[in-house]
């Protein structure tokens, strides 16, 4: 069965766990942008706890009236430098940061104009890293509801609202990632970006998606 997701920025590892055994990934390309979602943010683990990284978009006040494939990233803000420095600080000492750093940096330095295209570039990169050979398709029109016997609709199933290292988000999709050693803290923190799993487990990361 196909799995339907919105395009996300450094998606949670659970996003990819949902693809295990799926026939294809169907990416929502006909929706309007929605604020405060994984479409333009991700969650990473730092020494201070869970931290969101947010991609600013052009004309944020009216952004929810813009089609997702047309939404521009605001490069007038120095967010690329800020995100990269934060990733270096949080993960520079992990076993596999250097293994993936150059590939990620190459995506960032391109300054891809549209949020949807940036998210797709990251998606394809992560599918390669996880060795997931799954067809990626795109919606051709918007449907608020799907026949759940034909499509597993996971749009907005994962949400960054309320996620923290002390109070996991109970409204988000259940975490389907096997616990692994993380950089900070004694207790496993769920719902983090796939970056956290990759930097810690490298090529073995796919084995933690259950």
SSE blueprint:
Elements: E1 3-6, H1 13-17, E2 25-28, E3 41-46, E4 49-54, H2 79-91, H3 97-109, H4 115-129, E5 136-138, E6 152-153, H5 194-201
Q: Please, could you describe this protein's structure?
A:
The chain is an alpha/beta fold and 210 residues long. The chain has five helices and six strands. The protein has one domain. 26% of the residues lie in helices and 12% in strands. The strands form two sheets. It has a four-stranded parallel sheet, with no helix packed on it. A two-stranded antiparallel ribbon has the order 3-4. Strand 1 (3-6), helix 1 (13-17) and strand 2 (25-28) form a beta-alpha-beta unit. Helix 2 (79-91) runs antiparallel to helix 3. The two termini are 17 Å apart. Mean pLDDT is 93; it is low at 164-171.
How many DSSP H or I helices? Answer: 5
**Looking across the biggest beta sheet, what order are the strands in?**
5-2-1-6
- Count of individual domains: 1
Biggest sheet descriptor: 4 strands, parallel
Separation of termini? 17 Å
Principal-axes geometry comes out as globular
* CA-atom Rg in angstroms: 16 Å
Reading the helices and strands in chain order gives: EHEEEHHHEEH
Uncertain segments of ≥5 residues (pLDDT<50)?
164-171
* Number of DSSP strand runs: 6
Strand content: 5-15%
Structural class: alpha/beta
Quote the average pLDDT. Answer: 93
Measured as a percent range, the helix fraction is 25-40%
Quick structural gist:
The chain has helices spanning about 15, 80-90, 95-110, 115-130, 195-200, and strands spanning about 5, 25-30, 40-45, 50-55, 135-140, 150-155. By secondary structure, it is of the alpha/beta class.
């Amino acid at each position: 069965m196909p799995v339907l997701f919105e395009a996300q920025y450094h998606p949670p590892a659970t996003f990819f766990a949902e693809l295990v055994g799926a026939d294809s990934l169907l990416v929502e390309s006909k929706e309007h942008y929605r604020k405060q979602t994984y479409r333009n943010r991700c969650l990473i683990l730092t020494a201070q706890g869970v931290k969101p990284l947010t991609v600013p978009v052009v004309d944020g006040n009216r952004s929810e009236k813009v089609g997702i494939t047309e939404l521009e990233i605001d490069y007038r803000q120095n967010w690329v430098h800020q995100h990269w420095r934060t990733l270096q600080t949080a993960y520079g000492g992990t076993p596999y940061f250097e293994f993936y750093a150059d590939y990620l940096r190459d995506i960032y330095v391109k300054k891809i104009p549209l949020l949807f295209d940036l998210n797709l570039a990251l998606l394809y990169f992560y599918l390669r890293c996880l060795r997931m050979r799954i067809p990626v398709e795109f919606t051709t029109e918007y449907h608020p509801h799907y026949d759940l016997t034909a499509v597993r609709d996971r749009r907005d199933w994962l949400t960054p609202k309320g996620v923290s290292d002390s109070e996991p988000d109970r409204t988000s999709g259940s975490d389907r990632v096997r616990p692994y050693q993380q950089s900070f803290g004694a207790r496993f923190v769920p719902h983090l970006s796939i970056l956290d799993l990759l930097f810690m487990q490298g090529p073995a990361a796919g084995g933690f998606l259950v």
